[in-house]
Amino acid sequence: MNRTHMLKAIIHNFSKHKSSFLIASLLLLLSSFFSVLTPYFIMKILDESIPFGEWSSLLGYIALAFIATFLNNLTKLLSDYVFSKLARTFVINIRSRCIAHLQQMNGEYYTHINSGDMLKTIFEDIENIQQTATYSFVNFAADILISVGMLFFLGWLQPELLMGLLLLQVFVFLGQKKFNRWVEAQSISLRSASGELYSLIQEVISNLMNFVVIGVNSLFREKYMKLEKTNAKQQIKTQLVFSLSNGFLQLSGMIITLFILGYGGYKVIEGSLTIGGLITFNVYSQRLIAPIMRASQFQTRLAGALASWQKIRDILEAPLNWGESDAMLNKCSSIRSIDFQNVTFQYDDKLVLSKVSMQFESKKIYAIVGESGSGKSTITYLMLKLWPIEKGNILVNGTSINRISTTDLRQQIAVVSQNTLLFNDTIYNNLALGSTTITEADVMEVLRIVELYEFVMQLPQQLQTEIGEQGIRISGGQRQRLSIARALLRPASVLILDEATSMLDPITEEKIMFNLNQHIQDKIVIVIAHRLRTVVSSHEIYLLHEGRLAERGNHESLLAGKKQYQAMFERTV
Ligand SMILES: Nc1ncnc2c1ncn2[C@@H]1O[C@H](COP(=O)(O)OP(=O)(O)OP(=O)(O)O)[C@@H](O)[C@H]1O
Q1: Which of 108, 347, 358 to mutate to test the pocket of ligand 1 (most atoms within 8 A of CB)?
Q2: Residue 132: which of 10, 17, 22, 18 has the closest Cα?
Q3: Which protein residue has the closest C-alpha to ligand 1 atom 25?
């Protein structure tokens, strides 16, 4: 079932490049055909030219052998070229489909993925399938064709010798099959062990300095050594199984050659086979062994490819958000309003929001405040369709969020979260993220809004300054400001700042909030903050308490209410 599914998907992928695929396959078949001609000409030289002193036929067969070898190489070269182009197209296509699918998933999925394993799938498994899809399938077909042709030829040369050879081959094939199953089981265990190790190392490498600063190196070492040992055990086992399998192949190859020389020699002495015939029989039988061995190894390859395919399917077929593809949902090119109507939500069995109603409209700044764990960030996640709501509804431009394309929604909402995400690149590239429409003037403008303009201008390389991995070469506050600047450059209609200014001094924070006020244009701006000084200028403030909306209003009215907000304000300012 899985095999059929994989074949269908591969055929579907190549259907757009049918002609290239056919040309490459044809070239490979031709190359295999030319490769088997040479021994035939050698037999002719040994049996017909040399014994009878035929100079002209000797030269003729040498010329033919040369032409066959030349054409064999030429057609192989051309087929390799077309196949490698097809292979790259295949990899890019599947890889980008995986990435696009991953971007539409939900929070449950993101919080449970094993990123190391996933990276392995996106890089190694896709390459593995590609190898099987391009070379192995066609080589397999060519091998079968060539083997059949050679069998006829060998039967014509010496039928009894051929019968003996085939009998031996059957034993080899059955033995190899057993090894294949062993190799397959071993590869799956190795994959899982190396996936876990990869994941851990990836986590450490991307947070090297943090590991040192926080001092969790020894903890990591213990975990690392344990995984490394399991992985090493699996690697050694796999290597052993591979070596045993190869040893078996070599041994059986040698037994077959000795059989041909022994029984074929007897036939030569008896006079029913020529010396040229025996040499050619031996050469062809080697060539016959190779395709049969490859055909049996093809099973192993196919098994490996199937394991890889299952991993890719796990990504491509992971149920989409709300189980619906974006193509079936409404497009959304800008968000003008978001309306939470009695929204109740829980993670697993932990109730986080209870009957929360909030409204957000464009051209206004809103604030969500409340103690830690009261559900503020969760509001953002629900807007991004990361989790489905239990009860109530969220309307976006008057339409239920469930009916709106997840991709469009996520494009329209720019979130600057507590965890900054910066890349090991220049300031400019971190802001523009490859966009060709963003100009240097745009970048300068947002740098002014986030109060980073002077800082960047006094750097020797200004916008071209490299900031290191995750922005390690700049301060925490500067990282936050760069993240805000990047969000401002995005053509999104909602900007959410979730504790995005928490590392700034109160004066810079106040300046940035003032600048933002001047530049909100048509956006909905939502500020989530603990320091209430950050939110005093908001048009509307929502105060969450234990998952319920406890208070709402602007700063002045909430202060005048003399309830929780006023107490919080006095505590934090
Ligand atoms: N993925 C998750 N799975 C299970 N529980 C979660 C998950 N994310 C958050 N929670 C829980 O939901 C509650 C609300 O979390 P949320 O992040 O929305 O709070 P918050 O008000 O933004 O907190 P803070 O101010 O500390 O950032 C917390 O008790 C938290 O432990």
Answers
A1: 347
A2: 10
A3: 372
- Determine the Cα–Cα distance for residues 72 and 138; give it in Å rounded to an integer: 16
Atom of ligand 1 at shortest range from CA of 350: 5
Q: State how far the Cα of 540 lies from the Cα of 554, in Å rounded to an integer.
A: 5
Report which DSSP code applies to 320: P
Length in residues, the chain = 573
Predicted pLDDT at 100: 82
Mean pLDDT of 215-219: 63
Q: What is the pLDDT of residues 287-340, one digit of tens each?
A: 776 676 676 667 777 777 888 888 888 888 887 766 566 667 778 888 999 999
Angle at which helix 476-489 crosses helix 506-518, to 10 degrees, equals: 10
Pair of tokens at residue 373: 């764990």
DSSP string, 23-50: HHHHHHHHHHHHHHHHHHHHHHIIIIIT
For atom 28 of ligand 1, the residue with the nearest CA is 373
Phi, psi of 166 (to 5 degrees): -65, -40
Mutation test residue for ligand 1: of 376, 502, 528, the one with most atoms within 8 Å of CB: 376
Work out the average pLDDT over 15-38. 84
Are 389 and 343 in contact by the 8 Å Cβ rule? The answer is yes
In the DSSP assignment, the letter for residue 233 is H
Q: What is the pLDDT of residues 83-115, one digit of tens each?
A: 888 888 888 888 888 888 887 787 777 777 777
Residues with CB under 6 Å of ligand 1 are: 111, 347, 350, 352, 370, 372-378
Interface TM-score (ipTM) > 0.90: yes
CA distance 501 to 145: 69
Locate the ligand 1 atom nearest the alpha carbon of residue 111 and give its number. 1
The total of other beta-carbon atoms located within 10 Å of residue 434's CB is 7
Domains of the chain, CATH where assigned: 2-323 (1.20.1560.10), 337-572 (3.40.50.300)
Distance (Å, whole) CA 456 – CA 462? 5
State the residue for tokens 């999104």. 492
Where does 271-321 have alpha helices with state H? Answer: 275-316
Across 30-39, 136-145, 278-287, least confident range: 136-145
